[in-house]
Amino acid sequence: MIGPGSTPGASVRSPKTAELVAGTLRRMVVDGTLKDGDFLPNEAELMAHFGVSRPTLREAVRVLESERLVEVRRGSRTGARVRVPGPEIVARPAALLLELSGATVADVMVARSGTEPMAARLLAESGNTEAFDELEKMLTEHIPAGYESGRLAETTGDFHLRVVQLSGNTTLSIIAGMLHEITVRHTEVALRGERSLSKTDYDKLIRSYRRLLKLVRAGDGAAAEAHWRTHLDTARQLMLEGLETIRVRDIMG
């Protein structure tokens, strides 16, 4: 039956056999039948299982390879290996899309301020001691090391990313992963020409991080969300001063 809005004479393309095979293998990765690091069965087994030719099977594997779900080493006898991707699979294309669209770093910083505070609330409400201790270790070891080595943008970026990842919300984690490299690169630009923040400003930064950690350990989601929003708003104003119109491509290129 033709539904409303259908175009007379329009045809619906049937999926190619290779796409159907790729879809089945993709589902096996998603449901855990095939795990990260597993090798796909050899070509003969897969051809027999799906009842397809070698060219069709290889086309299906190329589809999965283009999606970064499998890794194929040319000339290897071991075949295609499953590689479950992380947020980086969308971070690069997203950064490119932002570059092409002419987005400013201010756009990115606003988006960050819209996601991290909610993650802080979730972390406070559902986090565990192990998660809190990991953040504590970052505050006592990772970030100070970054301050001493001139890598503060990178190490503070790691802290922000882990706050979101430890919140347990997969969607927020993917968004944070997408924004991570862009925000770190921008922070490096903002600090360019200086070894790091002044000791006074660095101490203020650490106090704010410790305040967040205290609130999430106490399970106070509302206060953690409010504090982190204020922190991000303040940081955005400071880091964008004089750089309000800088475009994403200007820091990623």
UniProtKB/TrEMBL annotation:
Q: Output the CDD domains linked to this UniProt entry.
A: WHTH_GntR
Which GO terms fall under molecular function for this chain's record? Answer: DNA binding; DNA-binding transcription factor activity
The record's PROSITE patterns line, in alphabetical order, gives:
HTH_GNTR (PS50949)
Q: Keywords on this record? A: DNA-binding, Transcription, Transcription regulation
Per its UniProt record, what InterPro entries does this chain match?
GntR_C (IPR011711), TF_FadR/GntR_C (IPR008920), Tscrpt_reg_HTH_GntR (IPR000524), WH-like_DNA-bd_sf (IPR036388), WH_DNA-bd_sf (IPR036390)
Coiled coil spans: none
Q: Which SUPFAM superfamilies match?
A: GntR ligand-binding domain-like, Winged helix' DNA-binding domain
- Check the record and name the Pfam families matching this protein: FCD, GntR
List membrane-spanning regions.
Answer: none
Domain named HTH gntR-type: residues: 15-85
The UniProt entry, under PANTHER family, shows: TRANSCRIPTIONAL REGULATOR, GNTR FAMILY (PTHR43537), UXU OPERON TRANSCRIPTIONAL REGULATOR (PTHR43537:SF5)
Q: What is this protein called?
A: GntR family transcriptional regulator
Q: Which organism is it from?
A: Mycolicibacterium thermoresistibile (strain ATCC 19527 / DSM 44167 / CIP 105390 / JCM 6362 / NCTC 10409 / 316) (Mycobacterium thermoresistibile)
